[in-house]
Amino acid sequence: MLKSTDDADTATRHSRLVINGTVYAPTAAVDLSMSQVSAQVVTRGIIARTIELGIDTALGYLRPAIEIPPEPVLFTTYPAVSAKPASVTAISGFTPPAPGAPVDVTDATLPGGGRASLTLGGYQPAPATTGPLDQVVLQVAHHEDGDAKALKLSVGFPGSTCTGVDNALDLPVRLGSNGPVTDRADLAPCGLTNASQLAGLTVTYTVTAGAAA
Questions:
Q1: Do residues 108 and 116 touch, judged by C-beta distance below 8 A?
Q2: Which of 15, 12, 10 is nearest to 2 (CA)?
Q3: Which one of 30, 175, 186, 199 is CB 3.0 to 4.6 Å from 48, fit for a cystine?
Q4: In the chain, what percentage of residues exceed pLDDT 90?
């Protein structure tokens, strides 16, 4: 999110960045590189997922480059939990996973105009709380060859509005030879706002072929 580099070619000219306040980017990266610093760079701390600092202060400067505020400040963090499917609950057209293989690794060969679907369930680990969810993102890694006309993602949970043919989420077709591409779908618009709704979550991926085989 924030990057500052000091690549000046002289001993007297250097990049400068001063932030009077707090850098709050809990899901992003901050990378600051400066030399001959003679003042505070950030006056009220940095909160980020990744922080990389290369700050060289000027001779005689003894104050901190990244200041901690003198008064108490409360920051609340929430754990990010990732869950993977534990079982294939329904298959139409797709090849069942080989014994011992991950349940979400399978493929399908479709005739022209055909359709195949794969439903995954048993997402683990179970949520540690039943309270409200700030954000729920579904990651789908997929890859298509040939004439893929449409991809749909139906998400089933209590109160879901993203089920059925008409309400399923659209996914972009990912063609090429570089392997699966991961797409992200925000499930909050589908009505998933509480951890208790995750019990029994199912995800159905459906691909429809074009006119060609």
A1: yes
A2: 15
A3: 30
A4: 32
